[in-house]
Amino acid sequence: MKEETDTQVQHPRRNRLRDNHRREQILQMVRDHDGGVDAVQLATQIGLHVTTVRFHLDALCDEGVIVRTTFNRPGVGRPRTKYLAVEERLDYRVLLEVLAMELGQTMETRARRAQHAGRKWATRLTASPTAQAGQTEAASDKEVDEAFDRAVLHVTEVFKRMGFDPELTATAEPTAHPSHDSAPTVGRERIMRLHACPVRSFARAHPEVGCAMHLGLLQGLLAQADADGGRRQASEEISAHLEPLVEPELCVARLAAH
User: Fold this and answer.
1) Where is this chain compositionally biased, Polar residues type (predicted)?
2) Which residues contact 4 (CB under 8 A, 6 or more apart)?
3) What are phi and psi of 163, to 5 degrees?
4) CATH of domain 92-127+141-173+187-257
5) Rounded distance between C-alpha atoms, residue 210 and residue 199, angstroms
6) CB 117 within 8 A of CB 154
7) Pairing of strands 238-247, 175-178
8) Nearest alpha-carbon partner for 157 in 180, 186, 128
9) What are the phi and psi torsion angles at 220 (to 5°)?
10) Residue-wise pLDDT tens for the chain (258 aa)?
11) Contact call for residues 42 and 25 (beta carbons, < 8 A)
């Protein structure tokens, strides 16, 4: 078990996929036990050290999808902690499934409307006092002076608050990439790796809605940031491209200025 811990310390990004999968697996196991289950039972069933299982259980408790409770064991001894799934919580994924089908009869129609909804969502987020304060604070803390960098930083912060676990890579060299009309354009690019998705299962089932909405959100946030910074750098256009599920639990957003 020490070897596994050392590997996690040395390669934290490499293990995110495995940790997310294990956490979902543990959550499903808790849901399968109607009367609750303790960490020792879960560790035995899943084949992990009990400390690792408790780490994931604590994270699930923080997310509000399970709760802790105690029960007295036969005989003497301290009460043991059990974990119960929160069944009464609203499952928004069911609502998303219904809404997805109401967006249109074809995948193309649903994608177009979802992307438009994502842009409108971005407008609401940008207009909120919390978002404006976060954008100002992030920009001042990082001492970002250039419009494109400010826009990228703002988008990354918003996606972080939404639970996407974004990882912004180092500055990329000027590259050629396809534009909306498939013509190659040259510009600067930042890559944002999204290691988590709050609606992953829904996005897998309906990528034309879930992923298109997130693309529209990206585009809307960048458009607003571009407009705010246009007074200083009007000649630069900022665009976004989303590559959904390039790995089972990884999406890649490419933010470009050209």
Assistant:
1) 125-138
2) 52
3) 95, 20
4) 3.30.1380.20
5) 7
6) no
7) unpaired
8) 128
9) -65, -40
10) 444 444 444 555 555 556 678 888 999 899 888 788 999 999 999 999 999 999 999 988 888 888 888 776 666 667 788 999 886 555 666 777 788 889 998 999 999 999 999 999 998 887 765 555 455 444 444 444 477 888 899 899 999 988 898 999 865 544 444 444 444 445 688 999 999 888 888 888 899 999 999 999 999 998 887 666 554 445 567 889 999 999 888 999 999 887
11) no
Give kind and range of the element (H or E) at residue 83: strand 80-85
Q: Is the pTM of this model over 0.70?
A: no
- Tokens standing for 245? 């599920």
CATH architecture, domain defined by 14-85 = Orthogonal Bundle (1.10)
Q: What angle do CA 245, 248, 254 make, to 5 degrees?
A: 30
Distance CA 34, CA 28 (A): 11
Alpha carbon distance 30, 36 (integer Å): 7
Asked if 79 and 26 touch (Cβ cutoff 8 Å), the reply is: no
- Tokens 């074809």 belong to 106
First-to-last C-alpha distance (Å) of the chain: 49
Q: In angstroms, what CA-CA distances link 203 with 97, 199, 206?
A: 10, 6, 5
Length of the chain measured in residues: 258
For residue 106, which phi and psi values (nearest 5 degrees)? -115, 160
